[in-house]
Design goal:
The complex is a heterodimer of chains A (about 280) and B (about 180).
Chain A: H1 3-7, H2 10-20, E1 23-33, E2 36-45, H3 50-59, E3 67-78, H4 88-100, H5 102-105, E4 106-109, E5 111-115, E6 118-120, E7 127-129, H6 132-148, E8 154-157, E9 162-166, H7 168-173, H8 179-194, E10 211-213, E11 218-219, E12 224-225, E13 228-229, H9 231-235, H10 244-250, H11 264-273
Antiparallel strand pairs in A: 1-2, 1-3, 3-4, 3-10, 5-9, 6-7, 8-9, 8-13, 11-12
Chain B: H1 13-26, H2 29-40, H3 44-54, H4 58-63, H5 69-88, H6 90-97, H7 111-121, H8 126-131, H9 138-146, H10 152-162, H11 168-180
Helix pairs in contact in B: 1-5, 2-3, 5-6, 10-11
Chain lengths: ~280, ~180
């Protein structure tokens, strides 16, 4: 099953909209043009409703010809994000203004930890592939650690690797100051304490414009779905469970993000044990 | 239940505590240590010997008069175990068992007095601080468990970036202990 067939499923669109709403949506990948294949990234997409998502997919040729794009969402939570024009010149001006005033729209920021299946050596540009056993081992260690503290989190596949996310509202509840800076510190310490080899260095720094693979979206590089995973699925993980046909066959209506139950107090205990101080909270 | 003394007092826990308290003040610390060891090992013969040796003292002989000597020793052994744990606290008791902590420093002071002195000295006594066992938090222990293959130098650098309050020597001690286990 290809991306076009997969995305035509209305239940897929519904599950994606639940996450994309209140954030910036991004299409990024490669496209075949007059000058051959080129990388494209379309930012500042407002997809808070199914109709808006469909309209944007159509406008950015999501379903036509050679078009390989992944769908991402911003870790930043946004309120009253403007709708951007499909006229590219006008859009550029709107984007410039939006970027300048980005923090005015920002109401929160989710935490994300990326377990990457490949690592690029910055000096040699050589791509190193990480074995799935190592990826899963690291993922389970972090999952068990977060579960121990009763942190509310969810795990999803990113196509070839995995993501762990914690929603912004739990950090708001414990009044964490300077989220972006604190997240970098936590990821760095998690990597060090637990000796995680598959969590990339880039996880040590976060940017307010960071984007993350959208749950239930199709990863064109691997052909897999960014499926939220249950504990049982993690324990018995096999890439075949991420195949689009298998995902649709198993049913995704109202499947959601499969969040682990937890509390803000558990989250605070975790943050304090992993290097944050009381002074990092208001 | 046998009778505890000439006045017909029953051997109650209160009575035994009182007896032990008198004993603490009048028998040598070596004997107390030996008695504690004998109690822990349930070595009745050793206990009997120590008590007999010290029971030559008049006031002890007066206090400890029992109809059934063996029953007294058995009760005393149980009572002393409870007593030791009660006074020392479970953690210190376990350490004392392992020889890592000796609560008796002054021959003239009983357990309770010694502990009070210890408590007072706790914050200022350098010797105590030095002998205090290193306690690492769960996250710190996890760090050693997951990074045990690194060299000591790397561990010290990495560790101090996350948990800056530990000394190099305490990290080294923990490192070698973790590798050993």
């Amino acid at each position: 099953m290809n991306a076009v067939e997969y995305y035509k499923n209305i239940e897929v669109q519904f599950e994606m909209i639940k996450v994309l709403s209140g954030r910036e949506t991004v299409f990024s990948g490669e496209r075949e043009g007059i000058n051959g294949i080129s990388r494209v990234t379309f930012r500042c997409i407002k997809a808070h409703k199914i109709e808006f998502l469909q309209k944007n997919m159509k406008a950015f040729n999501f379903f036509n010809g050679y078009n390989k794009q992944n769908i991402y969402y911003s870790l930043a939570r946004l309120n009253n994000m403007p709708v951007f024009s499909f006229n590219m010149d006008e859009r550029k001006l709107q984007q410039k203004e939006f970027m300048q005033n980005f923090e005015k729209y920002m109401t929160g920021f989710d935490y994300g930890l990326d377990f990457d299946a490949h690592r690029v050596d910055a000096s040699t540009n050589i791509v190193e592939h990480i074995l799935i056993q190592n990826l899963l081992s690291d993922l389970k260690i972090v999952r068990d650690e977060l579960s121990f503290y009763k942190v509310p989190f969810y795990v999803k596949s990113s196509g070839s690797g995995f993501h762990i996310n914690i929603d912004s509202e739990y950090f708001d509840a414990i009044r964490l100051k300077n989220k972006i800076e604190a997240f970098g510190k936590i990821s760095k310490n998690l990597r060090s304490v637990l000796n995680l080899t598959s969590v990339c260095d880039s996880s040590n720094t976060y940017n307010k414009r960071d984007i993350w693979k959208c749950p239930y979206s199709y990863d064109y590089k691997s052909g897999n779905i960014a499926l939220p995973l249950s504990d049982e699925q993690i324990d018995n993980f096999d890439y075949s469970m991420l195949e689009p046909s298998k995902v649709l066959k198993d049913g995704i209506r109202n499947r959601g993000l499969l969040k682990h139950a937890g509390s803000s107090s558990g989250l605070k205990r975790f943050l304090l044990d992993y290097g944050l101080k009381e002074s990092d909270f208001e | 239940m046998s009778r505890g003394d000439r006045r017909g007092e029953l051997i109650t826990p209160q009575y035994l505590r009182r007896s032990a308290s008198y004993m603490n003040q009048n028998i040598s610390s070596e004997d107390i240590n030996e008695l504690a060891k004998a109690v822990d090992n349930s070595d009745l013969d050793a206990m009997r010997e120590i008590i007999e040796r010290n029971a030559q003292e008049d006031h002890i002989r007066k206090l400890i008069y029992v109809d059934s000597y063996n029953m007294f020793v058995e009760q005393l052994s149980e009572e002393l175990i409870t007593l030791n744990r009660f006074k020392l606290g479970e953690d210190r008791y376990v350490k004392a068992q392992a020889g890592a902590y000796n609560p008796i420093v002054d021959e003239n002071a009983g357990y309770a007095t010694t502990l009070k002195i210890r408590q007072k000295q706790k914050s200022s006594n350098k010797e105590y601080e030095r002998s205090k066992p290193i306690r690492f938090s769960r996250t710190e222990n996890l760090f050693f468990k997951r990074n045990i293959n690194l060299s000591l130098k790397d561990i010290q650098v990495k560790f101090n970036q996350i948990f800056p309050k530990r000394t190099k020597s305490s990290i080294a001690t923990k490192y070698y202990r973790s590798r050993k286990s």
